Amino acid sequence: MQSNILREDGVIWHTAISLDGYAADVNDSLMFMMGGDDEEADNPLVDFVMANVGCTLGGRRGYDISQHWEDLPKAYGLDDIPEYVVTRRPFPDDDRYFWADGNDLKGAVAQAKAKADGRMVVILGPTLGSALLRAGLVDQVFLQVAPVMIGAGVKIFADTGEAPVHLRLVHQSQSGSGVNLVYEPKRG
């Protein structure tokens, strides 16, 4: 499958959000995204990401939360994909993941790109995604907007810094009752 929308070798911040801008509810759950009438709707952009991801880059909070799930979800076959966790705290003894220094975001992205070996690096999580976007280290932002408002939780763009981050819409499409939005940061 080819896409003229998403860069196969890019650093892509891919996340699902509610209409009111939340990436997770107050309990850090993503389940609010499920349960719509078209939960099983095909999404060619998601399929493209999953077919081309070479490495994921997530934050420490997401790592910590996932350690309390009884059964780690099998997300689109990502179990065999290298995963970097970016953190400023000491690295735990967990050899399922690669660890990157949160004080060196540019270095963390470089490590993930090297591990991805020319394939896509997918950023997971709102805090890390916002920080990398603000630092100019994101090529594209792929938002899957779900038709639900949850009112409270983890804001997707809670920390964009003092200066505005300008984005340019490069794609919009419908998937079931939700929408896909792909943006690229305006540079310079």
Task: Sum up the structure in keywords.
single chain, 188 residues, alpha/beta, Dihydrofolate Reductase, subunit A, 8-stranded mixed β-sheet, two-stranded antiparallel sheet, 4 helices, 10 strands, 20% helix, 31% strand, globular, 5-amino-6-(5-phosphoribosylamino)uracil reductase activity, Dihydrofolate reductase family protein, DHFR-like_dom_sf
Q: What is the residue-averaged pLDDT? A: 79
- Rough outline: globular
In the sheet with the most strands, the strands line up as 5-4-3-6-1-7-10-9
What's the architecture, going by CATH? 3-Layer(aba) Sandwich
Cα-based radius of gyration, to the nearest Å? 16 Å
Number of helices: 4
Q: Return the string of H and E elements.
A: EEHEHEEHEHEEEE
CATH fold naming:
Dihydrofolate Reductase, subunit A
Overall tally of structural domains:
1
